[in-house]
Design a protein that fits this description.
- The complex is a heterodimer of chains A (337) and B (245).
- Chain A is an all-alpha fold and 337 residues long.
- Chain A is built from 16 helices and no strands.
- The longest helix of chain A is centred in the first third of the chain and has 22 residues, at 2-23.
- Chain A is globular and about 70 Å long.
- With 245 residues, chain B is α/β, with parallel strands linked by helices.
- Chain B has a single domain, classed as Rossmann fold (3-Layer(aba) Sandwich).
- Helices cover 34% and strands 25% of the residues of chain B.
- Chain B is built from eight helices and ten strands.
- In chain B, the strands form two sheets. Chain B has a six-stranded mixed β-sheet, with helices on both faces. In chain B, strands 2-1-4-5 form a four-stranded antiparallel β-sheet, with helices on one face.
- In chain B, strand 4 and strand 5 form a beta hairpin.
- In chain B, helix 3 (91-101) packs antiparallel against helix 4 (106-119) and helix 3 (91-101) packs parallel to helix 5 (135-147).
- Classes of the chains: A mainly alpha (337), B alpha/beta (245).
- The A-B interface holds A 135-137, 140, 148-153, 155-156, 159-160, 163, 212-217, 219-220, 222-227, 332, 334 and B 48-50, 52, 70-71, 73-74, 78, 80, 82-90, 93, 96-97, 100-103, 128-129, 132.
Chain lengths: 337, 245
């Protein structure tokens, strides 16, 4: 029994730390937007943003706690068959989401359909087949190979973006927009709002362009015989592709304008405050001031393009090009933090 | 081919590398040896432009490592300490990236990639993402990336550690034949018999200082004995409780 308790205690500690790091999302633009909308006395908008984040967070939070124990350690530990069964049976109850789902299922005022839906979502997260597939590279392999010297880097950066929860926060309103638009239920005035929400969700990764590369990736960048602006260009192409695809069913030109502005305003943070980011988490960007500037620039550029037409793309492109040139010089001078 | 004078790297008060001066001629396999923390990897990082020296100067292929960084990177192949791999690219995709970035023509790149994948026994992991590969496979991938552009100088940080014996033998033969054709190899290692087998020059560092710089002919006695005399004395640790109930 001592061995079982030891394994469960270690699993619980690992789970607690993982959940703390998962829920630690200040310095993300979605968080800032939710807080700002509360101060602007717009609780509906705050709730909407929070719901999008919670939907995306709910899946990974529900994952099996025992997956945090290294498989070979579990195999090596001198536990009997019965003790292993006990660990297996108790470990799901280390996850607070299990208790929430159980309470939700027992709550009488909840319909059977709703309880089944929530339990289904939980079971998906618990079994986490998508996550295992993702770690094997399953969903990441959908990123196509691009031509040219930058092609492999663009593919790599697109795959990196697909492992951030920010992308899935942008995917939720994008998919909802496609469904509503296909059903003819999306009013025209909602197109811009949907685009802004997608851009808001995507904007933080524009501040953390090197966060997923790790120390080894940064070493490789320094070894490649390639100017700094080209390294940034590969990252920007991946980001712009994601933004244009996700806003394709909404207002793609406004999406492009906003994405260019997000990259330009996020450039300084991406290079001078480069922090290691974790996969399958919301990315943590800049402190409030620079983040507010990026949010205002991104949403402003997209709204302005929507109001005034495609000519607005010209200053957005110019601003982005200047930031690319500046960022490239910083990289060449070895200024990447 | 590799030349440095008074090369120093300080981190605050601590001198990781302290005034190293050496010359490595073309076609030499130079083994840089020393205990953990002796300054081997720091030296490699400075010679490859990854780290700016605090003082002193170094040239590789006649290029100043601090000023001609971009051109230097075109001329050298590097196996860095942390391997420098991207988690989201497969083994084969890493080699394609290298061919694209170094401008290896399509006619050459396909053949070279196949030869490296076969020769370094990377076929089973060809389509596996680097983040999912074993350490040995990751190291072989990084080695293949260093070799693919056909560099004039190879910097290999612990190339033989954590790779299987057959690949180790293949690598040794490859390096010896490349050196015979004029490629300069600067490698660090803790595996003394392998270093003794292939290297033609030996450099030993101790606490950041150069304590030996000798050709094979100048070496007095076995490399192991010289190493224990100059780099660190051999020692044992007695765990009295081990093996007792």
């Amino acid at each position: 029994m001592r061995a079982v308790l030891g394994v469960l205690r270690a699993t619980y500690n690992a789970l607690r730390r993982e959940q703390q790091s998962r829920l630690k999302v200040p310095a993300n633009n979605l968080y800032y937007a939710a807080v700002a909308s509360i101060f602007m006395l717009d609780p509906t908008l705050a709730m909407f943003v929070a719901t999008v984040v919670l939907i995306v967070l709910f899946f990974p939070l529900s994952a099996d706690p025992l997956r945090l124990a290294p498989a070979f350690r579990l195999g090596l530990w001198p536990l009997s068959r019965g003790e292993r069964g006990l660990v297996r049976a108790i470990s799901p109850w280390l996850n607070p989401v299990t208790w929430l789902v159980a309470a939700f299922a027992l709550w009488r005022r909840v319909s059977v359909g709703m309880a089944a839906l929530v339990s289904g979502v939980f079971a998906l997260g618990f079994l986490a087949p998508w996550r295992r597939a993702a770690s094997r590279g399953g969903i990441l392999r959908i990123a196509p190979r691009f031509p040219g010297a930058l092609g492999s880097l663009v593919r790599k950066d697109l795959r990196g973006l697909l492992t951030t929860l920010d992308f899935y926060c942008a995917l939720v309103p994008a998919v909802a927009a496609i469904a509503y638009r296909a059903a003819g239920l999306l009013p025209k005035e909602a197109f811009l709002w949907g685009t802004l929400l997608v851009l808001l969700a995507l904007s933080t990764p524009a501040q953390t362009l090197f966060g997923l590369d790790g120390r080894a990736g940064l070493t490789r960048y320094r070894l490649l015989p390639m100017a700094g602006w080209k390294v940034l260009l590969a990252k920007d192409i991946a980001f712009l592709l994601a933004a244009v695809v996700l806003t394709a069913a909404l207002v793609p030109a406004a999406g492009l304008a906003g994405a260019l502005a997000a990259l330009a305003f996020g450039r300084k943070t991406a290079i001078q405050e480069n922090r290691t980011q974790l996969r399958w988490r919301l990315q943590a960007g800049a402190s409030f001031g620079p983040a507010l500037l990026q949010i205002a620039g991104t949403l402003g550029a997209a709204s302005f393009e929507h109001a005034r037409g495609p000519l607005v793309l010209i200053p957005c492109l110019a601003l982005w090009a200047v930031s690319l040139w500046w960022g490239g010089r910083q990289l060449d001078a070895g200024q990447l933090a | 081919m590799i030349s440095c004078r008074g090369l120093t790297k300080r981190f605050g008060e601590f001198a990781a590398v302290d005034g190293i001066s050496l010359e490595v001629a073309p076609g030499t396999i130079c083994a840089c040896l020393g205990a953990n923390g002796a300054g081997k990897s720091t030296t490699v990082r400075m010679l490859t432009g990854l780290l700016k020296p605090t003082s002193g100067e170094a040239t590789v292929c006649g290029l100043d490592v601090s000023r001609d960084s971009l051109e230097l990177r075109r001329q050298i192949g590097v196996l860095p300490e942390d391997l420098g791999l991207f988690e989201d690219l497969s083994v084969e995709e890493h080699l394609r990236l290298t061919a694209d970035v170094y401008g290896v023509s399509d006619s050459h790149s396909g053949k070279r990639i196949e030869q490296l994948i076969t020769g370094l026994r990377l076929e089973p992991a060809r389509h596996t993402f680097a983040g999912r590969c074993s350490h040995g496979t990751r190291k072989k991938t990084a080695l293949a990336m260093a070799l693919l552009p056909n560099p004039k100088v190879l910097f290999l940080d612990e190339p033989f550690e954590a790779i299987d014996p057959v690949t180790s033998k293949t690598m040794r033969d490859l390096l010896v034949s490349a050196a015979a054709r004029g490629v300069t190899v600067f490698l660090t290692s803790h595996i003394l018999p392998v270093a003794e087998e292939i290297a033609t020059r030996f450099v030993i560092l101790r606490e950041g200082r150069l304590v030996l710089n000798a050709s094979r002919a100048e070496l007095e006695g076995s490399l192991e004995q010289v190493y224990f005399d100059l780099a660190e004395p051999a020692g044992t640790v007695a765990l009295d409780w081990l093996g007792h109930d």
